[in-house]
Design a protein that fits this description.
The protein is built from 4 helices and 4 strands. The chain is α+β, with helices and mostly antiparallel strands. It has one domain: 2-Layer Sandwich (Alpha-Beta Plaits), CATH 3.30.70.
Length: 149
């Protein structure tokens, strides 16, 4: 019985996290853009990476902080420095393929590892701020930010 209750809580928590990441009631073009980017990332990183693309909602701004999360298979056993370099490449790639990249304030790249069914542990994260995001869109070079996780 306790296990069933814990599973219910896990599903509820996972659903709440997904809603927070994706925002409430996205419009069709937002959803299409995210789905298209997720498919492009899946094709590039491999299906096992299972990429998810969403937004971090901040002060009512629902589409300015792009959040790209994928399974650790894309950077298995990566050190922080290796992940930082890979995150920079993935951020650059994502922004080149996201229709509204110039409207973003930031992009976060994260990896997750399944702990149990429906529960993930975030392994690595890197966030690139607005000036870095614009530089990435323009093809300028930037250095990887310090470890944020």
């Amino acid at each position: 019985m306790a296990r069933m209750a814990r599973a219910g809580v896990s599903r509820t928590l996972a659903a709440a996290i997904c809603l927070a990441l994706l925002g409430c009631a996205p419009n069709a073009s937002e959803s299409e853009g995210r789905n298209r980017l997720a498919q492009i990332l899946r094709d590039s990183l491999g299906a096992a990476s299972n990429p998810n693309v969403g937004f971090i909602v901040d002060e009512g701004k629902r589409d300015s902080h792009l959040y790209v999360m994928f399974d650790t298979t894309a950077v298995a056993n990566a050190s922080d420095s290796v992940f930082a370099a890979r995150a920079l490449d993935i951020a650059r790639f994502s922004l080149r393929h996201y229709d509204k990249a110039t409207q973003l304030d930031s992009i976060t790249i994260a990896t997750r590892k399944a702990v149990e069914r429906g529960v993930w542990r975030i392994q690595h994260t890197r966030t690139f701020a607005s000036d870095q995001a614009r530089a990435l869109v323009n093809g300028d070079s930037i250095s990887a930010p310090p470890n944020t996780r």
